[in-house]
Specification:
The structure holds 3 protein chains of 3 kinds. Helices cover 70% and strands 0% of the residues of chain A. In chain A, 44% of the residues are buried. In chain C, helix 3 packs across helix 4 and helix 6 packs parallel to helix 7. The relative contact order of chain C is 0.14. Classes of the chains: A mainly alpha, B alpha/beta, C alpha/beta. Chains B and C meet through helix 7, helix 8, helix 9 and helix 10 of B and helix 7, helix 8, helix 9 and helix 10 of C.
């Protein structure tokens, strides 16, 4: 006895079609599109990514170029030639902001990627294994979580300077941010795995004879990605901000182009040459805002409670 | 069901306890056990539907899982199709483990979490073939369509995702998945409890049809005795990790021989305003399975309990042919 | 329906939910009455509108829901015209409600004693703390909680499901309402505990001469606890009748199907399969909402919404063919 077609989902069609149904990603994307704030965040982020990728071509001056000083144009207010003005030391602020975009995207996204990679592995092991191993990994995560990030980085910067006699560059900041930031991700991953592990569809695959690897990678991991994605997005914003703070406090590498460095250079003269701090400051503001809006939008779109 | 044929599945003296820990800062200490299953023996014949009933905490879900080695038993034996299951799993005997994963399947209670939301119905139903590789890829589509037809779904449903289906349909997909490996026994754990009343009959009838058509045996775990009455051939009643009574379905419902069963049956409202009956209201609640009462576990709530019941635990014994009960005074209820 | 003094009179109630996916017409034109000291069953499956109806009467419909039409009259007064403050005084004092999950009616942060006393003092400002505690203890005795003196100090999470439900009932009755909505009070409970709670509700109703609306999908509970039944389907009324008449000879195809689809513990019989599914309430079927699943459906059922009419047996039925159909009971 056949039943009437009775999809209860949002799609109302009673047409028997052989095309693939709407996956959860497709449903989430539809929902995301309706969220204006999230879309705004997405555009801002894409804009910054674009700038970061094309900065070598867009910037009139190469990174850390003091040419303006030699041309006697240092310390000038925004003009046609220098849209964001020039710093007292002779940097074209517009170019520096563009190069800084690349620098901060590199640090922000890179550090987050590293943190997620480490956090996923440790969190997955902590969540899936039982007994001693799980407890040890949890403790390790807790230790790393409580280590204060900023003092460590500032300390490392000083030590590096003393030992190697030069600033440590963006890559080292990236590594440090990643290595000390993975704990949040691992907690989330562990918690989600503990939850999903006991769900019946995992038990069902087990009862079909699925191997442990298949269970973890085919069933569990795809179902825990949502909070990881949202947290990562917000983490990028956090890492960018941290970089700016580090550089602002004077612990950054003066040979690199980042927003923080530029702000730091202009802070002494903020009263008179306000443009040196304002424009990189605005860039930071919008980048962080963009990632936050995107993260919120993703969170709403992927939130299962809104599902019909 | 001939008496002489060996049963399809036989469980002997199964014990499963869950340890309880008290957590310190670094270490944890075990402080007790939950007596989920305490020395349970039962059997299921080929083509038979055995009902397993009881209230929360009686251990019926744990029994279903342990039977399939989704939980590790503490002690006891299980023989399935002539194979010694627990021993084989302990020794990691790959062949036997494979046979068990093909021979026994489970249908779960919650249709909203028993299907992987990231997979299409096609992926879900072809997963056994992906895992065991015993069916060539070009055969998968045909098989999946056949499975869908068996549970009264359409071929085009294969390309959809679980969230596009209703609860009843999801449950049918879950049943189709269980059928994909051609099992001899299906453990159905409260398969209709989460479904609307008007949908339940669809699923219950489907299970019975499959039983007739393919000779599948069932362990039908449920707290809903009315549905148990409809579809099972025999019933076992559990309380606090023990089997209290087991008999042919009609015998159990018409002439129960255990006070707990009697109270259980009398508690259920009948959809008939004319129906008159004596209602036994049990005092108190089901006690905790961490510290079960001494002697007969039911004695603190039993209206017929005597001093003997508090002292000595009654054994599950045959009162009348095919009808077993664990009570010192079962003969009284004949 | 006899014209007894109507305690609650709901006419043409419409409550819609304005969601992202569309407008869910959860309650789409429902009439409901209950008199003093009456026990009425409100029967339906998920999506029938039974819970939303009771939430509408209490005016606690959660967003994005809203009452968009109809009237609700309680003790002669129009509830839809009441202010928030006035409704607060009615909730608990005049109309009480219990929910399927007792955990949601009990605050996990306060002891049982505190919560019950609070309700008592809320509706009787003059009473002192110690008097309120006395009444609380009496309430717990009334719902058959053993050692009530000790229980008042317990927190909800320390108690079992059955106890929590009984306390939730006590909380609903603390201020002595004349009408109680019991929404699936026993669905989450074990069978033997369910029996306890149902007996308790029966006793309380008799002792306090309280009216009871029993919201359930369980036909057995309906048969035991009610004198009148209202069957809802997809936000509309299917049938209204006196309980024993409904079971003996239903006059709506949905009622018939429901009675025959339900397994019984006292006999083995073939279960009637109702094809299809509960309809989508954003785009419900045209005409009679049950028509896609009804074995007796004809063209008029698709075209025209059937009116709710009084039948020869004193039922109210919204079926075009109640006159000609010979439907079977349980």
């Amino acid at each position: 006895m056949s039943t009437n077609d009775d999809s209860q989902g949002v799609s109302q069609s009673a047409k028997p079609s052989t095309q693939r149904g709407a996956s959860q990603w497709a449903v989430a994307w539809r929902r995301f599109k309706r969220n204006k704030a999230g879309l705004a965040g997405l555009f801002i982020v894409l804009f910054f990514v674009f700038i970061a990728l094309t900065s070598p071509f867009l910037a009139p001056y190469p990174p850390r170029s003091f040419e303006s000083l030699y041309q006697g144009e240092a310390g000038e207010a925004p003009s046609f030639k220098h849209p964001f003005g020039t710093s007292k030391a002779g940097l074209d602020v517009y170019s520096e902001v563009l190069h800084g975009t690349a620098g901060d995207m590199y640090v922000g996204v890179g550090a987050t990627a590293l943190a997620v990679a480490i956090g996923l592995v440790i969190g997955a092991l902590a969540g899936y294994s039982r007994g001693g191993m799980s407890d040890i990994l949890l403790m390790v995560s807790q230790i790393f979580y409580t280590i204060p990030l900023l003092p460590i980085i500032l300390l490392a910067a000083r030590v590096f300077l003393i030992i190697v006699a030069q600033g440590f560059g963006l890559t080292l900041i990236l590594i440090l941010l990643g290595v000390f930031g993975w704990a949040t991700i691992s907690f989330i991953v562990r918690g989600e795995i503990l939850r999903v592990r006991e769900l019946e569809f995992v038990q069902a695959s087990r009862s079909l004879g699925a191997s442990r690897n298949r269970l973890i990678f085919r069933h569990i991991v795809p179902n825990i990605l949502t909070p990881v994605i949202v947290t990562s997005t917000l983490m990028i914003a956090g890492n960018i901000l941290t970089e700016v703070v580090i550089s602002f406090l004077g612990f950054g590498d003066v040979n690199t182009s980042t927003w923080g460095i530029t702000i730091q250079e202009g802070i002494t003269y903020m009263r008179t040459e306000w443009w040196t701090t304002l424009f990189p400051g605005l860039a930071t503001l919008f980048a962080v805002l963009g990632f936050n809006l995107l993260g919120d939008g993703l969170s709403d779109a992927l939130n299962p409670r809104l599902r019909d | 069901m001939t008496e002489n044929a060996k049963p399809l599945l036989e469980i002997r003296n199964l014990v499963k306890h869950f340890p309880i820990y008290s957590r310190g800062i670094l270490l944890k200490k075990q402080v007790g056990f939950v007596h989920a299953i305490d020395d349970v023996s039962l059997h299921i014949d080929a083509g038979e539907n055995l009902g397993l009933v009881g209230e929360s905490g009686c251990g019926k879900t744990t029994l279903g899982k342990t039977l399939m080695y989704l939980e590790e038993p503490d002690s006891g034996e299980e023989v399935f199709s002539g194979l010694n299951i627990f021993e084989a799993f302990r020794k990691s005997d790959a062949k036997v483990m494979h046979d068990v994963r093909h021979g026994i399947q489970m249908v779960f209670q919650n249709p909203y979490t028993s299907l992987d939301p990231r997979m299409t119905v096609f992926d879900i139903l072809s997963e056994p073939y992906q895992i065991h590789k015993h069916v060539p890829r070009n055969e998968w589509k045909r098989r999946v369509y056949e499975l869908l037809r068996m549970v009264n779904l359409e071929e085009y449903h294969a390309e959809r995702y679980p969230h596009e289906f209703s609860g009843g349909q999801r449950q049918r997909i879950a049943i189709a998945r269980a059928l994909a490996v051609d099992p001899k026994l299906i453990v159905a754990d409260e398969p209709v409890s989460s479904l609307d009343v008007s949908i339940r009959a669809q699923i219950l009838n489907l299970l019975t049809d499959l039983q007739k058509k393919k000779g599948i045996s069932y362990l039908y775990i449920s707290h809903d005795l009315s549905s148990v009455r409809q579809i099972t051939n025999r019933v076992a009643v559990m309380y606090l990790g023990k089997i209290f009574e087991t008999a042919k379905t009609d015998s159990l419902f018409e002439k129960p021989l255990n006070p707990y069963t009697i109270a259980l049956l009398s508690a259920i409202p009948v959809p008939d305003p004319e129906h008159q009956r004596e209602r036994i209201i049990l005092p108190g609640e089901v006690p905790s399975a961490v510290n079960p009462p001494s002697g007969c576990r039911f004695h603190p709530r039993c209206p017929y309990a005597t001093e003997l019941c508090a002292r000595e635990e009654p054994k599950l014994r045959e009162i009348v042919s095919g009808h077993l009960s664990a009570c010192h005074y079962s003969e009284k209820f004949l | 329906m006899t014209t007894r003094e109507r305690l609650l009179d709901v006419k043409g109630l419409k409550t819609y939910f304005f969601t992202e996916a569309g407008v869910v017409k959860a309650v789409d034109g429902i009439d409901f009455h209950i008199g003093r000291d009456e026990a009425v069953g409100l029967v339906g499956e998920s999506g029938s509108g039974k819970t939303v109806m009771s939430l509408s009467v209490m005016r606690i419909v959660p967003k994005p829901g809203r009452i968009v039409g109809g009237s609700i009259t309680f003790e002669g007064e129009d509830l839809l015209k009441k202010s928030d403050e006035e409704m607060r005084r009615i909730r608990g004092r005049k109309i009480g409600m219990t929910f399927q999950d007792p955990t949601s009616s009990l605050d996990p942060l306060f002891t049982i004693g505190d919560q019950l006393s609070e309700v008592i003092r809320e509706h009787n400002r003059a009473i002192s703390k110690s008097e309120a505690l006395e009444q609380t203890t009496k309430l717990l005795e009334m719902v058959r909680i053993s050692e009530p003196g000790l229980r008042v100090k317990n927190y909800p999470h320390e108690l079992s499901g059955g106890m929590k439900q009984r306390i939730a009932i006590a909380k609903a009755l603390a201020a002595g309402p004349s009408l109680l909505f019991a929404d699936e009070p026993t669905t989450n409970l074990d069978v033997t505990v369910q029996a306890q709670v149902l007996e308790l509700i029966k006793d309380l109703r008799e002792k306090n001469r309280m009216s009871l609306v029993m919201i359930t999908h369980d036909m057995g509970i309906v048969a035991e606890m009610t004198q009148l039944v209202q069957v809802l389907y997809a936000g509309m009324v299917a049938e209204v009748a006196e309980t024993h008449s409904l079971f003996k000879k239903p006059q709506h195809p949905y009622t018939e199907a429901l009675l025959q689809a339900v397994p019984r513990i006292d006999q083995r019989r073939d279960l009637r399969v109702i094809p299809g599914n509960i309809p989508n309430l954003i785009n419900p079927p045209s005409g009679c909402r049950f028509h896609p699943r009804c074995p007796y459906a004809k063209q008029i059922c698709i075209d025209k919404v059937p009116p709710l009419e009084e039948t020869d047996r004193g039922h109210l039925s919204s079926c075009h063919f109640w006159r000609t159909l010979d439907l079977q009971g349980a």
